[in-house]
Design brief:
Elements lengths: L1 E2 L6 E4 L5 E2 L4 E2 L8 H16 L1 E2 L4 E10 L8 E14 L2 E16 L2 H7 L5 E7 L6 H19 L7 E7 L2 E6 L2 H15 L2 E11 L6 E11 L7 E4 L2 E7 L3 E6 L5 E5 H4 L3 E3 L2 E8 L2 E5 L5 E3 L14 E7 L2 E4 L5
Parallel strand pairs: 2-8, 9-13
Antiparallel strand pairs: 1-5, 2-3, 3-4, 6-7, 7-8, 9-11, 10-11, 12-13, 14-15, 14-18, 15-16, 16-17, 19-20, 19-22, 20-21, 22-23
Helix pairs in contact: 3-4
The structure holds zinc ion.
Length: 328
């Protein structure tokens, strides 16, 4: 009642569990419970595609078990099925039971083969405007890029990181795809601010196609400023309010908003907020807790409505202190 091709076989990537469909590698469905149920599903699909059923016959295919342990490339298991068939001919009902085994062979898909061989198409260079990264910045950046690449992997199987190299000037991530490197650069800039530059280096000529082969380097330069930081720029205090390709700042003395290129801020001095006590409101004055010094304040309106004796946060410039607005 049924016929199954003798060479019926399921090919599965031992690393990512993709299935070879004859034309290409298909990613495993995201909702697979475990390897065993995934292999059963693959084998069932292969059977449904390849099994020929006698016209008029009804068959019921039931998976029984996976025989053998899934392993590395080269290993094999079998998925056992029970097929029950029913066929009516001249008023007589025929029933048959068939035991089938669909072999599953483990191999490596193109992507995983390239990954294992250390293949990369682009280098994402993470640098800083200051010329170096601190240990904690390195840790944070490596985690951020690794996590972002993992989320890209769901849609782009080549978005793997095949190597990470820490250099004096920053971190190099070796990526399987140029488009993934570009997306990661974009995410870095959205999160930390900075600039992106792309360059291409001729690395050879493809023997088969005669086409030139290029390697892409995407260089992200990150600023050392974060939203909330207070800096001194042309003698005035500014708060960083937004990061991106350019920096958005608010002048604390009058609330003016400006945008600047990161290059212009490379030398900007970061001011350290510190506690002080209000001792006078007209003219505004505070005593710095750290030194006990009395300082005149820029008249920013931040002291309006504050009582004498109130503890505030200030930054100190040559011309006096700036009281920072209270956090909500
Ligand atoms: Zn794979």
């Amino acid at each position: 009642m049924i016929r199954v091709p003798e060479d019926l076989e399921v090919r599965v990537c031992a690393q990512c569990l993709s299935r070879h469909t004859g034309l290409r590698w298909e990613h495993p469905p995201g909702d697979a419970e475990d390897v065993e149920s995934l292999l059963i599903e693959y084998a069932l699909r292969a059977l449904e595609d390849e099994m020929r059923v006698l016209q008029g016959a009804r068959v019921d295919v039931r998976p029984l078990e996976v025989k053998g342990e899934p392993g590395g490339p080269g290993s094999r298991v079998q998925v056992a099925f029970l097929v029950e068939g029913e066929w009516e001919v001249e008023g007589e009902r025929l029933r048959r039971e068939y035991h089938l085994k669909v072999p599953v062979t483990f191999t490596l898909c193109h992507r995983c083969m390239k990954y294992r061989s250390g293949f990369y198409e682009a280098i994402l260079q993470v640098r800083s405007f200051r010329g170096g990264l601190t240990e904690s910045e390195r840790k944070e950046l490596e985690e951020f890029v690794t996590r972002s690449a993992e989320s890209l992997l769901k849609r782009d199987p080549m978005a793997f990181i095949s190597d990470v190299k820490h250099r004096d000037e920053g971190i190099d991530f070796y990526l399987g795809s140029t488009s993934a490197a570009r997306k990661l650069a974009r995410r870095l800039v959205d999160r930390f601010g900075g600039t992106v530059r792309e360059s291409h280096e001729l690395v050879g000529v493809d023997k088969d196609t005669g086409k030139r082969r290029y390697r892409t380097s995407i260089s992200v330069r990150l600023p050392h400023l974060r939203p909330g930081d207070v800096i001194e720029l042309e003698g005035a205090p500014y708060e960083v309010t937004g990061v991106g390709e350019r920096c958005t700042l608010r002048r604390l003395t009058d609330g003016t908003r400006v945008r600047r290129d990161w290059e212009e801020l490379a030398e900007a001095r970061r001011l350290k907020p510190e506690p002080a006590i209000v001792v006078n409101t007209d003219p505004p004055q505070v005593v710095l807790e750290r030194t006990g010094e009395t300082l005149d304040c820029f008249d920013t309106g931040a002291l309006d409505g504050l009582e004498i004796g109130r503890r505030v946060t200030v930054v100190v410039l040559d011309e006096g202190a700036v009281v920072l607005p209270e956090e909500d």
